[in-house]
Amino acid sequence: MLKFTDLCSFIMYTTPFHKEVIIIQLSDRQREIVDIVQRLAPVTGDKIAEELGLSRPTLRSDLALLVMLGLVDAKPKVGYLPGRDPKYDSYIGSMLKKLTVADILSEPILISSSATAYDAVLMLFQQNTGTLMVTGEDQEFIGIVTRKDLLKVMLGHTDLHTVPVTLAMTRRAQMTTLAPGDSLLEAISRLVRHQVNCLPVLDEQCTSLAPIQGLVGRVTKTDIMNAILSLTEEKT
Question: The pTM is what?
Answer without folding.
Answer: 0.62
